[in-house]
Design brief:
- This protein has an eight-stranded parallel β-sheet with strand order 7-6-5-2-1-10-9-8.
- Among the domains are: 159 residues, TIM Barrel, CATH 3.20.20.80; 186 residues, 3-Layer(aba) Sandwich (Rossmann fold); 89 residues, Golgi alpha-mannosidase II (Immunoglobulin-like), CATH 2.60.40.1180.
- By secondary structure, the chain is α/β, with parallel strands linked by helices.
- The structure holds zinc ion.
- The site of zinc ion has 8 residues, from helix 6.
Length: 718
């Protein structure tokens, strides 16, 4: 295995504008401290700083033809520090800021700037971090960038990380992009966002291809100097709006050695306690080793370290999901003493127990799809979906039912659809994780029979945009005995978002016909059980998701749940049972399909109403084979299970997300007596790694007496 294929623990120690502070340090001591007090094995050193007012053109090292950062004229940070880093087993990667340049530097190269649709430089309209601008990957800046990359690699460092470039929103319309676009598509770049226009969609692809091509050539520049050198960039995470910055790991990963994305903690924007895990698991779905970037800062207060418990949670979720941790630590005054402790606690554990992290494969038999195609091109055909319906919140004798107005603007409509996908993915992820149902994420390119055959159950949470080939592979997979849980408009559009009249696909889902959308409403609309269904008794009301299709089921399809006729306002009598089923269960050759006409997953993601989560998990468990390992723990405990074939053992990661019910969490609330049932006869030994104790077996369960933050249970087989 190459070094970057093994567990890597990365950090960036940042002095910000005091960057020259490094010169005063004892570099031997510095490297030793990072190794022994922080337990890293890879460090990023700033080569071109990401600091105000845009220092991307100034180097901290000797680079022929480039200007030095003031204070580094006679000091080469890379060549000075490298021997000490290597002495302590630390790989050295150089951080190159490739997206933030001062106006002063841009003035020398006015044609390099990214340009918006109105012809102005992006940085003029949207100053970067309040001051500075950004360059275009298709402009001659690219050659400047590749030259800088080569100069960097000449210092014999282990590789580089590119912070940027991205193609910024509403970019790029510079002369070079216009020329290149015309050469490929024969026309000028369309001036406005219009999702009915195929040329606009070509532009979306063009932006993404341009960024990938830049990375390809940047990788060539690295390999030209050192064929073993690594390169990667800030390639973006799972967020459905990623297309706006042209970021996509599926496009980039052929040209980089890690798939990395940010999951920075911000108290106002913390979605769930599983945020970092969500990013890690998404990145792991790619083919390259994953890295999750966690700032070790109190949100945007960069000079104060994050609460220790929150930092431990982020690092534990990262490594438990087979991603590599990375954190930035800002210490311009070199005064944050003791800040290493929470980091060291997790990373030292990972360092000491490395053998339990390598060569292990997920035991998940369930694949949850994240659809980049849908997040880029999905625009629902149903107009009423774009109505402002408010939040449904009742307060002060008023209910917020919105204005009822239709959103017309394309851009806004697009973000409505992105929000649905965001919540559908979030809802599925959260529901399965809280239910301790092991699953993997799969990406668009994995929707092939070969990849799907690794799994028993496929979940397509409103994966609206699927190519013909993907739809066919899915059918084939189910026909051969696979199981499918899907919802709403899955597969109703092709990979570029064009509505497809694929009657066979709808029949495959058990749908005879679709008669439209129920009026969307947040509240007072219901589903009823016509028979007992899982934990729901017969004739039980369940909150109806806001978006639900009126479908008629084919003959022979089971329909245990129905929608009630809609109610337009709150506090009105209940409607009767409608003729539209809320769940369709169908056998298909050797397999099975459960289709939800409502957007159940997004409803859970947005509203967190428990019944939708119970339904999701109930459906998935109905379709799943018996679990090899069952874990009884509160929903706040994340369970990730792997198998190491070479040593015949199961590895269970337990991460406790139980805290003080506000973020950032300041304390873990310990969980007692986590019970583990192993449905295998050949168990030799079960023990935990935190204190290396054998787990006692009580009745059918092995019991972990106490989980504080993070632990690993090892199950050795005979
Ligand atoms: Zn351009």
């Amino acid at each position: 295995m190459k070094w970057y294929e093994k567990p890597v623990r990365m950090m960036r120690w940042d002095y910000m504008n005091n960057i020259t502070k490094m010169r005063e340090m004892d570099l031997d001591k510095l490297a030793k401290m990072k190794k022994e007090k922080w337990h890293i094995n890879c460090e990023w050193i700033v080569g071109t700083p990401g600091i105000s007012p845009g220092g991307g053109y100034l180097t901290t090292f000797k680079a022929e033809g480039f200007q030095r950062y003031p204070g580094f004229e006679d000091f080469d940070s890379l060549r000075e520090y490298l021997p000490y880093a290597h002495k302590y087993g630390i790989k050295l990667l150089v951080y190159l800021n490739m997206h933030w340049y001062s106006y002063e530097f841009a003035k020398i190269h006015p044609d390099w700037e990214q340009t918006t649709s109105n012809g102005q430089a992006y940085g003029k309209i949207h100053p970067l971090y309040g001051n500075g601008t950004t360059f275009c990957v298709n402009s001659p800046w690219r050659d400047w960038a590749f030259k800088l990359i080569k100069e960097t690699m000449k210092a014999k460092v282990d590789g580089i990380f590119l912070d940027g470039p991205v193609v910024f929103p509403d970019c790029c319309y510079c002369q070079y992009c216009q020329e290149k676009f015309k050469k490929v598509y024969g026309k000028d770049i369309p001036g406005v966002e219009d999702w009915k226009d195929n040329l606009w969609k070509n532009f979306v692809e063009f932006r993404r291809n341009s960024l990938a091509e830049f990375l390809r050539d940047a990788q060539n520049a690295v390999k030209e100097i050192n064929p073993e050198g690594v390169i990667f960039l800030n390639a973006g995470g799972w967020q459905p709006s990623g297309w706006r910055a042209a970021r996509d790991i599926e496009k980039m990963e052929s040209y980089q050695d890690f798939n990395g994305a940010e999951e920075f903690f911000h108290s106002k924007r913390a979605r769930t306690i599983f945020d970092t895990s969500m990013m890690a698991k998404y990145l792991r779905a790619g083919e390259k080793p994953a890295v999750v970037f966690s700032d070790y800062t109190m949100g945007s207060w960069h000079y104060i370290p994050l609460e220790p418990a929150e930092m431990k949670l982020a690092l534990a979720q990262t490594i438990a999901n087979q991603a590599n941790p990375w954190f930035a630590f800002f210490d311009p005054l070199a005064k944050n003493r003791g800040a290493n402790e929470p980091v060291a606690e997790i990373l030292e554990f990972a360092e000491k127990n490395e053998e339990y992290y390598i060569k292990s494969s997920s035991v998940a038999r369930i694949a949850l799809h994240f659809s980049r195609q849908s997040s880029t091109y999905y625009l629902s055909q149903f107009d009423s979906l774009y109505k402002d319906i408010g939040t449904g919140k009742e307060e002060g004798l008023m209910v917020d039912q919105g204005t009822g107005k239709l959103v017309i603007d394309w851009r806004k409509r697009k973000s409505v659809n992105e929000f649905l996908l965001y919540n559908a993915y979030l809802g599925s992820y959260l529901s399965l994780t809280r239910g301790h149902i092991p699953f993997d994420i799969i990406l668009d390119k994995d929707l092939t029979l070969k990849k799907l055959k690794r799994y028993e159950v496929l979940i397509l949470p409103n994966s609206a945009c699927l190519s013909k080939k993907q739809r066919e592979s899915i059918k084939e997979f189910i026909g051969q005995g696979g199981k499918l849980f899907t919802s709403f408009e899955t597969g109703f559009y092709d990979e570029r978002g064009n509505l497809v009249e694929d009657k066979d696909w709808k029949n495959f889902l058990g749908v005879e016909k679709i008669e439209g959308l129920f009026p969307p409403m947040a509240g007072e609309n219901y589903i009823i059980t016509k028979e007992e269904f899982g934990r729901f008794q017969k004739n039980k009301l369940i909150e109806r998701p806001i978006l639900a299709l009126k479908v008629k089921a084919e003959n022979g399809v089971k329909t245990p749940l129905f929608f009630l006729n809609p109610i337009p306002r709150v506090y009105m009598p209940l409607g009767d049972v409608s003729s539209y089923p809320a769940l369709l269960i169908k056998k298909y050759i050797k397999g099975k399909i459960i289709y939800s006409p409502s957007l159940l997953e997004a409803f859970y993601g947005e509203y967190r109403i428990k019944s939708s989560s119970y339904l999701i998990n109930q459906i998935v468990e109905m379709l799943s084979p018996k679990k090899i390992i069952e874990v009884k723990a509160p929903p706040t405990v994340e369970v990730e299970i792997y198998y190491q074939k070479d040593s015949s053992r199961y590895i269970i990661h337990l991460i406790n997300g139980s805290g003080d019910m506000e973020r950032p969490i300041s304390n873990f609330i310990p969980v007692f007596e986590i019970k583990i049932k192993i449905n295998k006869k050949d168990v030799k030994r079960v023990f935990n790694l935190r204190d290396k104790r054998k787990l006692e077996k009580i009745n059918d369960f092995y019991v972990l007496p106490k989980l504080i933050d993070y632990d690993i249970i090892v199950i050795e087989l005979k």
